[in-house]
Design goal:
Blueprint (H helix, E strand, L loop, with lengths): L16 H12 L3 H10 L13 E2 L11 H5 L14 H5 L8 E6 L5 E4 H5 L5 E8 L4 E11 H5 L10 E6 L19 E5 H4 L5 E6 L2 E2 L9 E3 L12 E7 L6 H5 L23 E4 L6 E2 L7 H4 L13
Parallel strand pairs: 1-4, 2-11, 5-12
Antiparallel strand pairs: 2-3, 4-5, 5-8, 6-7, 6-11, 8-9, 8-10, 12-13
Length: 312
């Protein structure tokens, strides 16, 4: 089979990894003669969605990454289901092509970007980041992407742009169980401009060298490693430069439990549980939670003078 480099294949033609794996499982179960016929007559050869020419980022941590299966089979994605172990199955047929992200608001040239245009913005990097969920579990993930600032700088924000608002894709036809989640959709999030421009703020398009699985936010998502997981909005369709602090989904749903900033802070408990420790996926012992999830040296200066107990 001819192997083509990922840079030669438009995103719209890439086969999602789960579809590719399902196809391999199907072929493995068929007689050899039938497999040969299937390969020959298939109108479109399945291609693994592997990213080539990905740089290793100096922003990565040295922690051992969490196994791929754990990262892709224990997820928060309420549009599909509130069952963390069931998201992968519910999202397996999620359609991510064609896909556009609208960039709008307080900028000079608002427009919609295709995935191919997004992938052309900056060289892709592998960044191994720590993550901490507000519910108490954690993981280490090797993302593929580039700093969000690379995209934001291309749109020349006006002086009125103080925050960035984000919106996820939502469709009841693709996400029929969303009504049972207990939160409003589409999912929205927001960052202060200086947070969004920080080099650690990542626009991710891949995981473990492959394109993102649906359950992990395909085809493009935000990754904010020093904040609790709900700030890392998935399946982005809108990025908007705004003047005032934008609403965020979990703050709208329960303002006393989920603040706008959501910085990892072991000294500020959730109203229903302690945040002092965390349990890594696959581990049996909890460990102390680090301030800013271990990224204090890089990001603490963003919050100089702020009371991080009140601005949680």
């Amino acid at each position: 089979m001819l192997i083509r480099k990922s840079v030669d294949i438009p995103y719209s033609e890439v086969t999602p990894k789960q579809v590719y794996l399902n196809r391999r499982e199907l072929l493995a179960s068929l007689p050899a003669a039938l497999v040969a016929g299937y390969e020959f007559f298939s109108p479109g050869k399945a291609r693994a969605a592997k990213f080539d020419h990905v740089n290793k980022s100096p922003l990565s941590v040295s922690d051992e990454p969490t196994p791929y299966k754990s990262i892709t089979h224990y997820n928060n994605f309420y549009e599909f289901t509130t069952d963390k172990t069931g998201v992968a199955d519910q999202a397996k047929n999620f359609r991510t092509s064609p896909w556009t992200v609208s960039v709008e608001g307080q900028i000079k040239n608002p427009r919609k970007l295709s995935m191919d245009e997004i992938l052309a913005i900056a060289p892709l990097e592998e960044r191994i980041y720590r993550h901490r969920c507000v519910e108490g579990w954690s993981m280490v993930a090797p993302w593929v992407g580039f700093s969000l600032s690379a995209l934001l700088k291309k749109f020349e924000p006006t002086e009125k742009a103080k925050y960035i608002a984000f919106e996820s894709y939502f469709s009841t036809s693709q996400m029929p169980h969303a009504d049972y989640s207990g939160i409003p959709f589409p999912y929205v999030e927001g960052l202060r401009m200086d947070e969004a421009m920080h080099p650690l703020a990542l626009l991710a398009v891949g995981l473990y060298g492959d394109s993102l699985p649906p359950q992990d936010g395909a085809p493009v998502r935000l990754v904010m490693p020093w904040k609790y997981g709900f700030k890392s909005i998935k399946s982005l369709v809108k990025i908007k430069f705004v003047e005032k602090q934008p609403p965020t989904t979990w703050n709208l749903a329960a303002a006393n439990e989920y603040g706008f900033y959501a910085n990892v802070n072991p000294q500020v408990d959730h109203p229903r549980w302690s945040q002092a420790t965390e349990l890594p996926l696959g581990a049996f012992r909890r460990r102390p939670t680090m301030m800013f999830n271990g990224y204090a040296d890089q990001v603490a200066s963003l919050y100089n003078g702020m009371d991080l107990r009140n601005n949680y």
